[in-house]
Design brief:
Blueprint lengths: L1 E4 L5 E4 L6 E4 L12 E4 L3 E4 L3 H9 L5 E5 L5 E5 L9 H8 L14
Antiparallel strand pairs: 1-2, 3-4, 3-7, 4-5, 6-7
């Protein structure tokens, strides 16, 4: 179990092996500016510790924790074993401008 600090200063605990994602908290999620990190696991958890410190603690219990950069350059850590590679074609079409007509999701290929 990992011990972290909740926004109100109390101790919070989480099972690192259950973490799905760790990233910096946005202003919309924490208007007080107290929480620095958002942790998604069994429930949403906002904590005072810095994201990289939280990720380091989680990594001690979750060796499949991987890291990518968000569009603004800030890191996001995620459980690589829980990645779902399905693609929303409407989103792809808006971003790329075209989708191959013969594209079939992997689940549709036998």
């Amino acid at each position: 179990m990992i011990k972290l600090t909740a926004p109100d200063g109390s101790e919070s605990r989480l099972d690192g092996s259950e973490v799905v994602r760790v990233r910096r908290a946005t202003h919309e999620e924490d208007t007080t500016g107290i929480s620095k990190t958002r942790v998604d696991w069994v429930e949403l958890m906002m904590v005072r510790e810095e994201p990289d410190a939280v990720a380091a603690l989680v990594r001690t219990e979750l060796n499949s924790l991987a890291e990518l950069a968000l569009p603004d350059g800030s890191p996001v850590w995620f459980n690589a074993k829980k990645v779902d590679a399905r693609c929303d074609l409407s989103l792809l079409k808006r971003r790329v401008g075209a989708v191959r007509h013969d594209y079939r999701p992997r689940s549709a290929i036998s």
